[in-house]
Amino acid sequence: MAGRPYPVAALTLLLALAGCSGKPADPAAAAVPALDTLIVATGAGAGGMSWDGVVQAVEQVQLSAQTAGRVAALAADVDQHVARGEVLLQLTGAEQGATVAAAQAQLRAAEAQLADARNRFQRANELVGRQLISRDDFDRVKSAHDSMQASRDGAAAQIVQAQQQLAYTVVRAPYAGIVAARHVELGETVAPGQPLYTIYAPGELRVAVQVPEGDAAAIRANPAATVLLPDGRQANAAKIIVYPGADPQAHSTTVRVVLPPLQAPPRPGQTIKVRFAAAAGPAGIWLPASAIVNRGELVGAYVVGESTVVLRQLRVGRSMDNRIEVIAGLVAGERVAADPVAALQALGAMRGKPAATRE
Question: Please, which residues bridge with residue 309 across strands?
């Protein structure tokens, strides 16, 4: 029996019992080699919390139709750079052009009527001065003149309105930017208020993050955050704005994180993670998933002491943000090996035996 190897389950149980006892597996082991370790902490001491946020352009606009018509031409498409004032879309303008012509004809008629009323008023003004007409007749002529003046002004205003409706058939870029979305197709009939294009300026960016209500006050008191970019880079937030109100249905608060100038910045609409150092997150002990060891039914971590390295069995719970909740098996202040493979190699070196390089 002495030369018979232990079954895997028995070996796992021995490792677990040795870890739970808190005693070194080999009393004669040498000093612990240098290892990267994590100090077990709870709440805010665990390094803050991170949430997903959506990248937004500080300058972004959705252009909508301001008049009805059919799309006659599309001059810009998605991901195209456009200059300020550049034509994006052309609507048919036959109806608007007819309205302009009708308004111009009405203005000419009003001006002719006003000219006649002005002549009558001038003659009445001379006659009333010589007392050849009554004051009542003069007042009627003056009232007719003033009415024609108002009609002419109203006709002129209608021309301005009709010309503006005609101008709305040509949609132009409000500023230099990039077309993020095109919402219509060639030949489509649009109504006022219907979205046409979404454009953003490739300049200042921000991230909108929804955080739990309980963390909003801490972030407001300590406005610091680290943004994890899609390519793995990290950047410190240039500015943080915590909204004063909260969403009563989601029980969350919006935090706006302004990004610093970046080379190869993210695109609006992308989802990235933002870590807030002041956010305590859920209570309890949390470890990075990379520090957790899984051997069959055994879940544990290498606890590093002054002269010992012990595989400690753990009882774990939830997973969040690449971290795992430790329900039992660790206490605050203990040190855990950040790299289980390096810890296993160190344990083998202390025992004078070659160690496996794979968990």
Answer: 304
